[in-house]
Amino acid sequence: MTSRLLHCHGAVQIALILFVLQASYVSSVRARAISGGGCIASEREALISFRECFVDSAGRFSSWRGQDCCSWKGVRCSDRTGHVVKLDLGSQDYSDAILLRHQLSSSIAGLRHLRYLDLSFNYFNFTRIPLFLGTLSNLRYLNLSQTDFLGIVPTQLGNLSRLQYLDLSIYCSNCLEVSDLSWLPRLSLLKSIELSGINFGSISDWVHKVNVLPNLEILSLSNCGLNSTISTLSHSNLTNLEMLDLSYNHGLTGELPVWIGNLTNLSYLDLSYNMLVGSIPSGIEKMTIGNMTSLIYLDLSQNNLVGSVPVEVGNMRSLDILDLSQNMLVGDVPDGIGTLSNLTYLSLGLNNFSGVLSKEHFVNLVKLEYLDLSQNSLKIYFDEHWVPPFRLTGVYLRSCDMGPQFPSWLRWQTGTFTLDISNTSIYDVLPHWFWVAFSNTYILDLSINQLSGALPEKLELPFIEVMDLSRNYLSGQLPANLTAPNLGNLLLHNNRFTGTIPGYVCDGFGEINLSNNQLTGDFSECSATGRPLIMVDLKNNNFSGEFPRFLQNATELSFLDLSHNKFSGSVPTWVAEKMPRLEVLILRSNMFHGHLPKLLTGLVGLHYLDVAHNNLSGSVPSSLARLRAMRFSKGGDAHNYSSDSISTFVKDRELNYTHELTKKIVLIDLSSNVFTGYIPTELCFLKGLRSLNLSKNQLSGPIPGNIGALRGLESLDLSYNYFNGEIPSSVSDLNFLSCLNLSYNDLSGRIPSGQQLQTINGRYMYIGNSRLCGPPLLDNCTTNYTDQNFNQEHESEMHAISSCYPSLCTGFILGLWAVFCTMLFKKTWRTAYFRIVDVFYDKVYAQVAISKVVFMKKFLR
Ligand SMILES: *[C@@H]1O[C@H](CO)[C@@H](O)[C@H](O)[C@H]1NC(C)=O
Ligand SMILES: *[C@@H]1O[C@H](CO)[C@@H](O)[C@H](O)[C@H]1NC(C)=O
Ligand SMILES: *[C@@H]1O[C@H](CO)[C@@H](O)[C@H](O)[C@H]1NC(C)=O
Ligand SMILES: *[C@@H]1O[C@H](CO)[C@@H](O)[C@H](O)[C@H]1NC(C)=O
Ligand SMILES: *[C@@H]1O[C@H](CO)[C@@H](O)[C@H](O)[C@H]1NC(C)=O
Ligand SMILES: *[C@@H]1O[C@H](CO)[C@@H](O)[C@H](O)[C@H]1NC(C)=O
Ligand SMILES: *[C@@H]1O[C@H](CO)[C@@H](O)[C@H](O)[C@H]1NC(C)=O
Ligand SMILES: *[C@@H]1O[C@H](CO)[C@@H](O)[C@H](O)[C@H]1NC(C)=O
Ligand SMILES: *[C@@H]1O[C@H](CO)[C@@H](O)[C@H](O)[C@H]1NC(C)=O
Ligand SMILES: *[C@@H]1O[C@H](CO)[C@@H](O)[C@H](O)[C@H]1NC(C)=O
Ligand SMILES: *[C@@H]1O[C@H](CO)[C@@H](O)[C@H](O)[C@H]1NC(C)=O
Questions:
Q1: Which residues form the signal peptide (predicted)?
Q2: How far is the centre of ligand 3, averaged over its atoms, from the C-alpha of 232 (Å)?
Q3: Which of 100, 493, 578, 631 could form a disulfide with 513 if both were Cys (CB 3.0 to 4.6 A apart)?
C-alpha cells in the first residue's frame, strides 16, 4: 500500500486510496480507543494551534474535537508509539479548501514523527513555503501541490533526507521559483519528484542534480522553463523511471536519447511542447522505442522531430495514448499501429505523413476514442461496408483525402463530440443518415468539400455549437425547423442554398455567415431576442427589402456585411445606437439611398466603412472625422505586413476578402454613389486611414491641401468626380501610397513630384484632366496643352481603369501574396481551429485534458 501511495498522482486515486486508508485506520483507532489509547498531549496542542491558523468554511476540521487527536479526520497516529505520523489535509479540488488566516504557526514542527504531510489544494494566502518544514526530518511524503505558495522554494527541504515523495507542482506558472537546486541530491531516497509549474529561472544544471538520484521513478518537471538539452539526462541512475514528464518547457532541445528504449519500466513519457530535434530512436539502435513495452502514455507532440515512425511502435502493446502531432514526421503510418488494442487516443496531426490508411490500421483499435490525422498528406480508404470496431468522440481528419464518396464508416460514429472532415476531397451527396448519426455532436466542420444535396427540412441538433458547412455545393432551402439551442456559429457560406430565411437564423449568436448563396427574401419576419451576435455576413445573395430590423437587437455586433444584395431604403439612423460595437460595416452594391446618417460617427470602433455602389446622396458628412478608430493606426504592425496586402485586399475585396483582414484595415469607400459637394477638410484628421475611395460621385471643389496629413494612406481614389484646382503638393508626403487615381476630374497645374509618387506614377492616374502637366505626362508645362485628342486616343485603353484597381499596382501584387499567405498559414492548425471555435476553446481543451485524466486513472491503478 505505501509503495503504491508513492505513485499517487491522480486526484481521484488519492481520494480512493485515502478512503481505503481511512477505513482501515478508523478501525485501528477504534481498537485503540477501546484499549484507552489517545494522542500525545503536546501533539494535540500542535494540531490545535495549526487548526487555528485557518478559516475552514467547508468543515474540514469539524471532527477535530475531543482529546483523542488520533481519531480526528486526516490525522493518523502510529499504532506502536502513539505519535502522529500522518497529517492529510489534501484535497482533489479547491471546493473544500481551507484558507490561511494568519501566519502559519510553526507548531506542526512539533510533530517530529510526522512521516506524511499532504496540504495540497489549499490556500495559504500567497505566503512563502514555511522554512520549518525542513525540520520534519522523518517525512517520507510531502505534498504541497496546487497551493498558492509564492516565492522561492526553500533549500531547507534538503534536510528531509528520508523523503521519498515530493510534490510541489502548481497550475500557476511563475508563482514559485527555484534559485538553487544544490539541496536536491541530498534527497537520495527520492522516488518521486514533481515540480511542474515552478520556474527554474537560470538553473541550467538541473539535469546533473537529477542524474544522481538513483531511485527515481517519477520525474515531473513540466512547464518549468527548462531550456537545456535533454541529451545530458543520464540513463545510469534513472533505470527505474516509470514516469517522465518534461512537457511544456518550450525550450528543451537536443535529440531523444537512444537509451530511452532501455527504460523498460517506463509507463508515461511526455516531452510535448519543446524543441526536440532528430528522429525517434528506431531499428538501427539496439534498444528501440519498441522495447518500451510498458509504455502507456507517449506524447512527443509539438517538437521538431523528423524521420519516420519506427515500425517497432507496434510492439508497444500497452499504449493507451499516442500523440506525435505537430512535428515534421514523414513516411507511412506503420501498420503496427493497428495492433495497439489498448489505444484510446491517437494523434498524428500536422506532420508530413503520406500513404494510405486502410482498415488494417484500425482493425484492433477497439478502444479508440480520439483520432486526429489532420493536416498530413494521408489518404484514408475503408471499403464501403466496413464497420469500425471503435466509437470515436473526437474525429479530426482535416485535409486527409477521404473521397470521393462520403465515408460510410462515419455512420457508426454516433457518439462524436467533434467531427472535422474539412477539405477531405469528398465529392458526393451529403447522406441523410449523417444527421441522425451526428445529432449529438457539438462541433461539425464539413467545409471545403464538394458536398451536394439538400439539408433535411427538420433538424434537431440539441448540442451543436459550431456548424460549418461552408464551401460546398449544398443546395435547396435551409431547414425550415432547426432545433439548436446552443448554436453559436452557423457557417453556410459559399454554397447554393436558395429560398428564404427561416426565423431561427436571426436569433443566433456568435457568427452567422450565409454569404455567397442564392438566398432571397427580406428579413421583415425575422426577429432576434438579443443573444450576443458578433458577426453577420449576408454578402452576395439576392436579399431584398429594408436594412434588416432584427439587427436592432444585435447589440454586440462588430461585423456586418450586407454587400451585393438588393437591399433598399435608407441606411437607418439607429445603426450606431443599436449596434454600438460595430467595427466593420459593408453595404456595398445594394440600392440604399438617402443620406449617410451623421450618427454613424457614434460608432467609436468603426474602422471599416464601405457603402460603395449604392444611390447614396448628399454631402460627405464632415462628422466622419470623428470616427475615433480611424484616427489612429490599427495595431502596431500597421505598415509591416500591410503595404502589399492592402493592394490585394482592395482587389479581392469585392467578394472574397477575409474577415481577418478587415479587422486590420482602416478604410472608407463611398465610391459609385451620388455624393455631392466638397471633401470636408476634416477628413484629413483620420490619420489611421489606409484606403480612401470617393471615386464616381459628383464631388467638386479642390482636393484638400492637407491631404498629406493622412500619412498612412496606401490607396487614394478620387477619380470620376469634378474636382478642380491643383493637386496639393502634400500628396507627395504620402510615403506609403501604392495606388493613386485622380483620373477624370478637372484638375490642373503641375503634378507634384516626390519619391513615392515617382515609384507609382503612371499616366493613367491623371488621365481625363486636360489641364494637368509635368511628368509622368508628356506635357512638360512649358506649353499650354489643350489637345483633347490625348484623351480620346487613350479612352478605350483607359476605360478599363474604372477605379483604383491594383492591376495598376502590379508591382505589389506578387509580393503581397507571399505576405498574405504567410499571415494566413503561420499559425498552427490548432490555433487556427481554436480561432474558429473561439469561445469554445475551453471545451475542446477540456476534452484533451479529460482524456489525460482518464489515462491517469488507468496508469495509477
Ligand atoms: C492575507 O494576507 C494579507 C496580508 O498580506 C492580509 O491583509 C489578509 O487579511 C490576509 N487574508 C486572509 C483571508 O487572511
Ligand atoms: C536558458 O535560459 C536562461 C535564462 O533565461 C538563459 O540565461 C540561457 O542562456 C538559456 N539557455 C539557452 C541554451 O537558451
Ligand atoms: C549516479 O549516482 C551516483 C550516486 O549518486 C553518482 O555518483 C553518479 O555520478 C551518478 N551518475 C551520473 C551519470 O550522474
Ligand atoms: C541498453 O540496453 C542494452 C541491452 O540491454 C545494453 O546493451 C545497453 O548498454 C543499454 N544502454 C545503456 C545506455 O544503458
Ligand atoms: C528489444 O526489442 C527487440 C525487438 O524489437 C527484441 O529483439 C529485443 O530482444 C528487445 N530487447 C530487450 C532487451 O528486450
Ligand atoms: C490493456 O488494458 C487492460 C485494461 O486496462 C489491461 O488489463 C491489459 O493488460 C492491457 N493490455 C496490454 C497489452 O497492456
Ligand atoms: C419545430 O420542431 C419543434 C420540435 O419538433 C416543434 O416543437 C416546433 O413547433 C417546430 N417549429 C416550427 C416552426 O415548425
Ligand atoms: C428584440 O427582442 C425583443 C425581446 O428580447 C423582442 O420582443 C423584439 O421583437 C426584438 N426586436 C427585433 C427587431 O427583433
Ligand atoms: C478569391 O477568389 C478567387 C476566384 O474566385 C480565388 O482564386 C482566390 O484564391 C480567392 N482569394 C481568397 C483570398 O480566397
Ligand atoms: C518641353 O516640350 C517641348 C515639346 O514637347 C520641347 O520642345 C521642350 O524642349 C521641352 N522643354 C523642356 C524643358 O523639357
Ligand atoms: C498659357 O495660357 C495662359 C492663358 O490661357 C497664359 O496666360 C500663359 O502665359 C500661357 N503659358 C504658356 C507657358 O504659354
A1: 1-31
A2: 13
A3: 493
Closest CA to 108 of 181, 54, 62: 54
Main-chain phi, psi angles of 218, to 5 degrees: -130, 125
| Whole-number pLDDT of residue 251 | 92
User: Tens digit of pLDDT for each residue in 177-217?
Assistant: 999 999 999 999 999 999 999 999 888 889 999 999 999 99
What does the pLDDT look like over 424-445, one tens digit per residue?
A: 999 999 999 999 999 999 999 9
Query: Residue 254 class from Cβ within 10 Å (0-12 exposed, 13-18 middle, 19+ buried)?
Result: middle
Q: Is the dihedral of CA 406, 407, 409, 412 positive or negative?
A: negative
Three-state SS for 679?
Answer: coil
Cα 109 to ligand 7 centroid, rounded to whole Å = 68
Q: Where are the beta strands (DSSP E) in 179-245?
A: 192-194, 218-220, 243-245
| CB atoms near residue 28 (< 10 Å) | 14
Instruction: Report the separation in Å between the CA atom of 450 and the middle of ligand 9, taken as the mean of its atom positions.
Output: 17
Q: Do the beta carbons of residue 564 and residue 655 sit within 8 Å? A: yes
342 class by beta-carbon count within 10 Å (0-12 exposed, 13-18 middle, 19+ buried): middle
Q: What average pLDDT score do residues 716-722 get?
A: 94
529 CA to centre of ligand 8 in angstroms: 5
Helices (H) and strands (E) counted in the chain, each on its own, are 13, 49
The DSSP string of 360-412 is GGTTT-TT--EEE--SSEEEE---TT---S---SEEE-TT-B--SS--GGGGG
DSSP labels, 108-157: GGG-TT--EEE--S-B-TT-BPPGGGGG-TT-SEEE-TT---BEEPPGGG
Question: Does ligand 6 have an atom closer than 6 angstroms to the CB of 317?
Answer: yes
Output the pLDDT for position 480: 93
Exposure string of 358-390, with b = 16+ CB inside 10 Å and e = fewer, is: bbebbebbeebbbbbbbbbebbbebeeebebeb
Residue nearest to atom 3 of ligand 8 (CA): 529
Q: Do 274 and 245 touch, CB atoms closer than 8 A?
A: no
What are the distances in angstroms from CA 282 to CA 258, 271, 287, 307, 310?
9, 17, 8, 10, 5
Please state, in angstroms and rounded to a whole number, the distance separating the CA atoms of residues 809 and 801.
12
The predicted-structure confidence for 79-104, as pLDDT tens digits, reads as follows 999 999 999 999 877 888 899 988 88
Give the lowest-confidence range in 130-144, 304-318, 402-416, 767-781.
Answer: 767-781
Contacts of 303 (CB under 8 A, 6+ apart): 271, 272, 273, 274, 275, 276, 277, 326, 327
Pairing assessment for the beta strands 99-100 and 54-55 based on DSSP bridges: antiparallel
- Determine if ligand 10 sits within 6 Å of the CB of residue 787: no
Q: Which atom of ligand 9 is nearest to the CA of 657?
A: 13
Q: What is the rounded CA–CA span in Å between residue 622 and residue 199? A: 55
Ligand 6 atom 2 nearest Cα: 342
**Distance from C-alpha of 824 to C-alpha of 822, rounded to nearest angstrom:** 5
In terms of C-beta density within 10 A (0-12 exposed, 13-18 middle, 19 or more buried), how is residue 66 classed?
exposed
Angle at which helix 11-34 crosses helix 841-859, to 10 degrees, equals: 50
Question: How far is residue 9 from each of residues 165, 168, 169, 193, measured CA to CA in Å?
Answer: 11, 12, 11, 11
Pocket of ligand 8 (CB under 6 A): 527-530, 549-550, 552-553
At which residue does the C-alpha cell 451623421 appear?
598
3-state secondary structure of 413: coil
Contacts for 704 with CB less than 8 Å, ≥ 6 apart: 679, 680, 681, 683, 684, 728
Query: What number of other Cβ atoms are within 10 A of residue 213's Cβ?
Result: 20
C-beta 481 within 6 A of ligand 7 = yes
Contacts of 27 (CB under 8 A, 6+ apart): none
